[in-house]
Amino acid sequence: VQLVESGGGSVQAGGSLRLSCAASGSIFSINAMGWYRRAPGKQRELVATITSGSTPEYADSVKGRFTISRDNANNTVHLQMDSLKPEDTAVYYCNADLIPSGYANWGTINYWGQGTQVTVSS
């Protein structure tokens, strides 16, 4: 099982980017999925999460600007980022709590993507 992010890049302040993350491999089920970020010199922080029933939660710093969504049929999660600010510059990581096929009795396992760079210039 692996999580593969796409969609990072560079944009000017006020612009938009859309990140996507696809979970691949033999998967029994996926519970919560989410996005975290690590800015230079800072610790990794939560950006947004979404439950299997598509209930979202957001960090205060991105509320009203970012939208998280998921496609359960394709095991993907997206992060639409609008009104980007220079302080949103970070490496963004996809995260998922999932049960690989054959491990249904083990409970969920937490997986991370490799990260994708988002750079917002002023």
Can you characterise this structure?
By secondary structure, this protein is mainly beta. Helices cover 0% and strands 58% of the residues. The protein has no helices and 11 strands. Strands 2, 4, 5, 6, 9, 10 and 11 form a 7-stranded mixed beta sheet that branches. Strands 1-3-8-7 form a 4-stranded antiparallel beta sheet, with no helix packed on it. The N and C termini lie far apart (38 Å). The relative contact order is 0.33. The mean pLDDT is 96.
Radius of gyration: 14 Å
Low-confidence stretches: none
* Fraction in beta strands: over 45%
Mean pLDDT: 96
Along the chain, the helix and strand elements come as EEEEEEEEEEE
Biggest sheet features: 7 strands, mixed
Note the quaternary state here: single chain
- Secondary-structure-derived class: mainly beta
Count of helices? 0
The rounded distance between the terminal residues' Cα atoms is 38 Å
